[in-house]
Write a structure and sequence with these properties.
- Chain A: This is ABC-2 type transport system permease protein.
- Chain A: One of its GO terms (molecular function) is ABC-type transporter activity.
- Chain A: The chain crosses the membrane at residues 21-40, 116-135, 156-181, 219-244, 256-279, 299-324.
- The complex is a heterodimer.
- By secondary structure, chain A is mainly α.
- Chain A has one domain.
- Helix content of chain A is 70%, strand content 4%.
- Chain A has 13 helices and 4 strands.
- In chain A, the strands form 2 sheets. Chain A has a two-stranded antiparallel ribbon with strand order 1-4.
- In chain A, helix 1 crosses helix 9, helix 3 runs antiparallel to helix 4 (77-95) and helix 10 (216-244) packs parallel to helix 13 (301-325).
- The radius of gyration of chain A is 23 Å and the shape is elongated.
- Chain A starts with a helix and ends in a 5-residue tail after the last helix.
- Chain B folds into 2 domains: 7-225, Rossmann fold; 230-292, 2-Layer Sandwich (Alpha-Beta Plaits), CATH 3.30.70.100.
- Chain B is built from 11 helices and 14 strands.
- Chain B has helices at residues 47-54, 76-80, 98-106, 114-123, 139-151, 169-185, 197-201, 221-224, 238-247, 271-280, 295-302; strands at residues 7-18, 21-32, 36-40, 62-67, 70-71, 83-86, 157-161, 189-194, 206-211, 214-220, 231-236, 252-256, 262-265, 284-290.
- A 6-stranded mixed sheet of chain B has the order 6-7-8-3-9-10, with helices on both faces. Chain B has a 4-stranded antiparallel sheet with strand order 2-1-4-5.
- Chain B is elongated.
- In chain B, 39% of the residues are buried.
- The chains are: A mainly alpha, B alpha/beta.
- Chains A and B meet through helix 1 and helix 8 of A and helix 2 and helix 3 of B.
């Protein structure tokens, strides 16, 4: 057991000293301020378009509009519920003096993860994960690693566990850095702001029956949890590719191509429903929270979670089976 | 083959096929305790494949490898525990310091103390640079760090693949002395592969010569080199000399070399006699050399002049 902790320590040491973590933090520290600025510009434009900086009158107007719609008899029952919730949310903005068009840092990180989960975060994960085994081949150190009195599966397990730790670190770092940087512009408050969730889709329709408000901190926890799950799945697949392909460049290329393909496919061909079984079309788990309709029919949160889990388990199995048996020829 | 317990490494019928190609075929040898065993052959003869099988990087198709009495495929952990190795270049983690590398490998074995790390660092004389990153090391220093790494767990068997590759002549001599000292003083068995034969000739007790995946000769170096060395003549006219030499009873194997010299086999005490006969026949002899055979000669004989590189 102490032996295994040593292995885990070795892997973490390599990650830290290879400066991969530093690179990730650097990427985040450069990109998040850019995203923050972009968001800031959007907010400014909104304010200009409205022609008034007095958002309170605007929200009040919206509440009145909604109440008028409620009193109309032609509105179907399930819409009424949604409108009531909307009014509740808008009332909260007024009561707590929150400008809904100018979000605080918590809103920023919530929106950020919704955008980042399908491409940006998986790419970061691939950068750290794709070379975890192949780099040992490229550097020739695999020959030293596998000639120790240690079973091969333990070595790979240590690598995988260290990778999951690193993935968790990246997800947390994304949230923290996002909060820190965007807070400078938007302010740090807004954790308790109510956010709509609970959407469901059935037969291509958005079912709003279960829609309710949750405090934003709870929503953020849920979406980063889902992002973590997505990232772990991406890391697991990267591990397999890294075992199968000896060159770091090749394994990184394969993973990047697959992720981008998954993103493109969902948008290009929403009618080709078979692609919903492809792992990289299922990365955007946060869409189920926010009620963004999925492009492909028949996709639900449990479905996507199952697809990700099955692909991960199969990749893990292949990775271990191959790593244990493979001849190290060159 | 003899599986005497004094043998640290015993290899029986080792074969590796990849697809239809037999890379290594039916290799047998045994390395005794404290022995330096040379494994010689041209590049591509199967040396590296064999060595990788010895350290468990490649699974043999057939055959058995026993290290310190343990079967490598069945009792991998017990067997590999007694092995220290450098396979090809000493590739360590360049972004770590020498000491961090050693500590990393120490964590992968049992019972290696900080004191042992200091010990091996002193042994390979790297004290001054051990806390620098390996990236900044010269090849010779990497080679020594590689050896330090291999010695960490006090192995009974040290397996070195082309350990002098890329070293300068001083480095090669230093390495040779170091290996010699390890075998003699610490009675570690050393299995060393090389395609530079004269280097091994000076170092090894026994050698196996491998060619096209098969061991073509094994034996003690001094036995392989024993026997009357050939005599090389430089003389003219050559034609006449050949005829005369062939007619003499003591001379055998008269052979015209590419540069016009003649190689013959004859007992040392008859050289003066033969020289006299040649002079009498009016043949002008300008030089007589008795050339000691080298492993290279034997090797070329065994492999029928196959290329060394």
């Amino acid at each position: 057991m102490s032996n295994f902790i040593g292995l885990l320590y070795n892997e973490l040491l390599k990650m830290v000293r290879k400066r991969r973590i530093l690179v990730i933090l650097l990427i985040l520290s450069i990109l998040i301020p850019i995203f923050t600025y972009a968001q800031y510009r959007t907010v400014q434009t909104n304010i200009q378009n409205l022609g008034t900086s007095d958002w309170k009158t605007l929200v009040q107007q919206q509440i009145v509009d909604n109440q008028n719609r409620l009193s109309s008899s032609r509105i179907p029952e399930e819409w009424r519920e949604l409108i009531k919730i909307n009014i509740q949310q808008q009332q909260y903005y007024l009561d707590h003096d929150i400008n809904p068009t100018s979000p605080g840092a918590p809103t920023f990180i919530r929106k950020f993860v919704e955008q980042a989960i399908s491409l940006f975060m998986p790419l970061l994960i691939v950068v750290v994960a794709a070379d975890i085994v192949s780099a040992e081949h490229t550097g020739g150190t695999i020959k030293l690693l596998l000639t120790r009195p240690i079973r091969r599966w333990k070595i790979l397990l240590a690598k995988y566990l260290s990778l999951t730790l690193l993935v968790s670190f990246i997800v947390i770092a994304t949230a923290l850095l996002g909060y820190l940087f965007s807070g400078l512009v938007f302010g740090y408050s807004g954790w308790d702001m109510p956010v709509l969730t609970g959407f469901e889709t059935q037969n291509d329709e958005l079912i709003t029956n279960g829609v309710h408000l949750v405090p934003q901190w709870k929503y953020i926890l849920m979406s980063y949890g889902l992002a973590w799950f997505t990232c772990i799945a991406v890391a697991t697949l990267s591990l397999m590719v890294s075992v199968l392909v000896r060159s770091t460049a090749a394994s990184m290329g394969i993973m990047l191509a697959a992720i981008v393909a998954g993103n493109l496919l969902t948008q290009l061909s929403p009618t080709w429903t078979t692609i919903k079984y492809f792992v990289f079309t299922n990365l955007s788990l946060t869409n189920y929270l926010s009620g963004t309709p999925m492009m492909i029919e028949g996709m639900t949160l449990p479905f996507s979670l199952t697809v990700l889990t099955v692909w991960s388990l199969v990749s893990l199995f292949i990775a271990f089976a191959v790593f244990i048996r493979k001849d190290v020829l060159a | 083959m003899d599986t005497n317990s004094s043998h640290v490494l015993v290899v029986n019928g080792l074969t590796k096929r990849i697809g239809k190609r037999e890379i290594v075929r039916d290799i047998n040898f045994a390395v005794g305790q404290g022995e330096i065993y040379g494994f010689l052959g041209p590049n591509g003869a199967g040396k590296t494949t064999t060595i990788r099988m010895l350290v468990g990087l490649i699974r043999p198709t057939q055959g058995r490898i026993q290290i310190a009495g343990y079967d490598l495929s069945k009792q991998f952990l017990q067997a590999i525990r007694h092995v220290g190795c450098i396979v090809e270049n000493p590739e360590l983690y360049p972004y770590l310091t020498g000491r961090e590398n050693l500590e990393l490998f120490a964590r992968m074995a049992e019972g290696i103390t900080q004191q042992r790390i200091t010990e091996v660092v002193q042994l390979v004389e790297l004290e001054d640079r051990i806390d620098d990153r390996v990236r900044t090391y010269s090849l010779g220093m990497r080679q020594r760090l590689g050896i330090a790494q291999a010695l960490l767990s006090r192995p009974q068997l040290l397996i070195l693949d082309e350990p002098t590759n890329g070293l300068d002549p001083a480095g090669i001599r230093e390495m040779r002395q170091f290996i010699y000292r390890l075998a003699r003083e610490e009675s570690i068995s050393v299995f060393i592969s090389s395609h530079i034969l004269h280097e091994v000739q000076l170092l090894c007790d026994r050698v196996a010569i491998i060619h096209q995946g098969r061991v073509v000769k094994t034996g003690q170096v001094h036995q392989l080199l024993a026997g009357e060395p050939p005599v090389i003549w430089q003389l003219s006219p050559t034609e006449k000399a050949i005829n005369l030499l062939k007619s003499l009873p003591d001379v055998t194997n008269v052979e015209l070399l590419e540069d016009g010299q003649l190689r013959t086999h004859l007992p040392q005490n008859k050289i003066a006699n033969v020289n006299h006969r040649l002079n009498q026949a009016g043949i002008q002899v300008t030089s007589i050399q008795q050339k000691k055979p080298t492993l290279e000669d034997i090797f070329l004989q065994m492999t029928e002049g196959g290329p060394l590189e």
